[in-house]
Design brief:
Elements (H helix, E strand, L loop, with lengths): L10 H11 L4 E5 L5 H7 L4 E6 L10 H12 L4 H9 L5 E5 L2 H4 L8 E6 L5 H11 L3 E9 L8 H8 L7 E4 L9 E5 L1
Parallel strand pairs: 1-2, 1-4, 2-3, 4-5
Antiparallel strand pairs: 5-7, 6-7
Helix pairs in contact: 1-2
The structure holds S-adenosylmethionine.
The site of S-adenosylmethionine (SAM) has 21 residues, from helix 2, strand 2 and helix 3.
């Protein structure tokens, strides 16, 4: 895949996104940043909605996450308009500049095939995103969590403590080594 926007996904992560987005009608990308994950999903999904607060990141609830992203966007005051201009070449990507959890209210229940969680990486942040998006996902739809494999990461704690004991979902083994994405399917 040529000319993707910049980003920090590994080749293995990109493979997981490619495989999981196959034949999806609607994929939701939580955390746009430069748009790399959105662009990958857009190669296989009919429609991708990518959500980020960009320069409005003072609205991120978790303090640690907020401070982290504030620094990123302070360095680039036109970040959003640059990403918007770059992603315009993908006619099936729509960007929503808003908080990831609240945006779920814009979608009908059971209308979404895939959600990629890559926004607020704190336990409380990922939990509010999951609670908001769970009803929006179809039966058999997928939840992909980035940065969910390392012992020291909150997203892993969330997956182990909440996802593994949630009867609404089950974890699937994607058989792609070295990816830091974990995948759950809705029952
Ligand atoms: C790790 S980056 C996303 C990387 C992107 N998925 C990629 O492939 O390069 C996380 C992004 O999530 C955004 N973010 C964090 N918490 C958010 C929230 N609660 N609502 C909206 N955006 C949020 C940040 O502004 C940041 O741009």
């Amino acid at each position: 895949m040529n000319n993707l926007p910049p980003g920090y996904l590994t080749e293995s992560d990109e493979m997981v996104l490619n495989v999981m987005a196959l034949d999806c009608k609607l994929s939701i990308d939580l955390g746009t940043c430069n748009g790399r994950s959105a662009a990958i999903l857009a190669h296989h999904s009919e429609r991708v909605v990518t959500i980020d607060l960009f320069e409005d990141c003072e609205k991120i609830v978790n303090e640690g996450s907020r401070d982290h992203y504030k620094k990123l966007f302070e360095q680039s005051p036109h970040f959003y308009s640059e990403v918007e201009a770059d992603l315009a070449r993908f006619t099936n990507i729509e960007i929503i500049k808003a908080p990831t959890a609240k945006t779920a209210l814009l979608f009908e229940d059971k209308s979404v095939d895939l959600v990629f969680f890559d926004a607020d990486h704190s336990f409380t942040g990922v939990r509010s995103d999951y609670v908001a998006w769970l009803p929006k996902v179809k039966q058999g739809g997928k939840f992909l969590f980035h940065d969910a494999t390392n012992d020291n990461w909150d997203v892993r704690t969330f997956c182990d403590q909440v996802m593994l004991s949630d009867n609404a979902v089950y974890e699937i083994n994607v058989e792609i080594t070295n990816s830091v994405i974990r995948v759950f399917k809705k029952m």
